[in-house]
């Protein structure tokens, strides 16, 4: 199965074409806060992009950062807020 065959990835990317960066960032930050995932997101962004906050992600890298964030959010939702 290729990366793009993942229905979760497809759903994330479909939503990305509808909203502005600011709208996407607010939605991500709201969901991350709701599921207490700030530490996980910071660590993931630091590992992947060298920054800890979505606000610090360049325009060029924002789609990747958003994809990382939504994968974390979906995992937090599925696990009721606890990632192992």
Quick recap of the structure?
The protein has 84 residues and is mainly alpha-helical. Helix content is 63%, strand content 0%.
Structure description:
The protein has four helices and no strands. With 84 residues, it is mainly alpha-helical. The radius of gyration is 12 Å and the shape is globular.
What is the rounded Rg?
A: 12 Å
Number of helices: 4
Rough outline: globular
Structural class assignment: mainly alpha
Series of H and E elements: HHHH
The count of β-strands is 0
Q: How much helical structure, as a percent, in the residues?
A: 55-70%
Percentage beta strand: under 5%
| Straight-line N-to-C gap | 24 Å
Biggest sheet: strands, sense, closure? none
**What is the mean predicted local confidence, pLDDT?**
87
List segments where confidence is low: pLDDT < 50 over at least 5 consecutive residues.
none
List the helices and strands and how they pair.
Blueprint: H1 7-16, H2 21-34, H3 38-49, H4 62-78
Helix pairs in contact: 1-4, 2-4, 3-4
Task: Give keywords.
84 residues; mainly alpha; 63% helix
């Amino acid at each position: 199965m290729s990366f793009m065959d993942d229905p979760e990835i497809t759903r994330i990317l479909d939503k990305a074409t509808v909203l502005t960066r600011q709208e996407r960032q607010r939605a991500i930050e709201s969901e991350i806060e709701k599921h207490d995932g700030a530490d996980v997101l910071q660590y993931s962004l630091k590992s992947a992009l060298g920054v800890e906050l979505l606000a610090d992600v360049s325009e060029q890298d924002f789609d990747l950062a958003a994809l990382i964030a939504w994968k974390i959010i979906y995992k937090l939702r599925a696990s009721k807020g606890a990632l192992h």
